[in-house]
TrEMBL record:
CDD domains attached to this UniProt entry: M14_AGBL4_like
Organism: Ciconia maguari
UniProt family annotation: Belongs to the peptidase M14 family.
Protein name in the entry: CBPC6 carboxypeptidase
Sorted UniProt keywords: Carboxypeptidase, Hydrolase, Protease
Recorded name of the encoding gene: Agbl4_0
């Protein structure tokens, strides 16, 4: 259909989903989740094709490459926890944040671009499952809208827990990507931290913990990508295999 690549026509208004990962170098599961998102989006899967036609995905898969290279757990080469410096990143001390933030601000100021989602992927050392952190807003309707994506993700991913998902404005988290961009962007943008457990997720009863594997993390990434199909109500556009024609008598 002519509307299929509406988002990509020159001069068209673009809906952008911005994803970042690995700002904390020790949180390796975040890289596998991000890999799952990327692999799915560039695949031949019919859902991936619809997503590429309607949305623009910007992905920075590793915000702390020097920390990863050095084997640091939380800090960059210069000893900074980058996830506390979004408010005023320095081009020499926090170059990756500075670059990503400049790009986000440019997009935000571009009337042809709607920056609709920002998702920063982390790993959690004490909690199980995948879950999200969102922001708190005075506006009740905006708050309710923000809960839609994690609720849909919960339906798609057996290891994602909506009950562990929380919305906060903890002062300690003020310099994080989610909090800073949640304050900067307007009320049609949704900013989340996606957390995934370092070790396991629970299926069924509280005793049935399943250890995470690299594949399970990547599957969560695929499910995050698929959830945009539900969120934007694009399901009807997915090409389904043709059903066999019923034999006429």
């Amino acid at each position: 259909p002519p509307s299929a690549t509406e988002n990509l026509r020159p001069g068209a208004e673009q809906k952008v989903v911005f994803i970042t990962a690995r700002v904390h170098p020790g949180e390796t599961p975040s890289s596998f989740v991000c890999q799952g998102i990327i692999d799915f989006l560039v695949s031949q899967h019919p859902i991936a094709k619809v997503l590429r036609d309607h949305l623009v995905f910007k992905i920075a898969p590793m915000l702390n490459p020097d920390g990863v290279y050095l084997g640091n757990y939380r800090c960059s080469l210069m000893g900074f926890d980058l996830n506390r410096h979004w408010a005023n990143p320095s081009p020499w001390a926090h170059p990756t944040l500075h670059g990503v933030k400049q790009l986000i601000i440019e997009m935000y100021n571009n009337p042809k671009i709607n920056l609709e989602f920002y998702i920063d992927i982390h790993a959690h050392s004490t909690m199980m499952n995948g879950f999200m952190y969102g922001n708190i807003f005075e506006d009740e309707e905006r708050f309710q809208r923000q809960a839609v994506f994690p609720k849909l993700l919960c339906q798609n991913a057996e290891d994602f827990s909506y009950s562990s998902t929380s919305f906060n404005r903890d002062a300690v988290k003020a310099g994080t990507g989610r909090r800073f961009l949640g304050g900067l962007l307007n009320d049609t943008s949704y900013c989340y931290t996606l957390e995934v457990s370092f070790y396991s997720y629970i299926l069924g009863g509280p005793t049935s913990a399943v250890p995470y594997t690299e594949e399970a993390y990547m599957k969560l990434g695929r499910n995050v990508a698929r959830t945009f199909l539900d969120y934007y109500r694009l399901n009807s556009l997915v090409e389904r295999p043709l059903a066999p024609t019923p034999k006429t008598r």
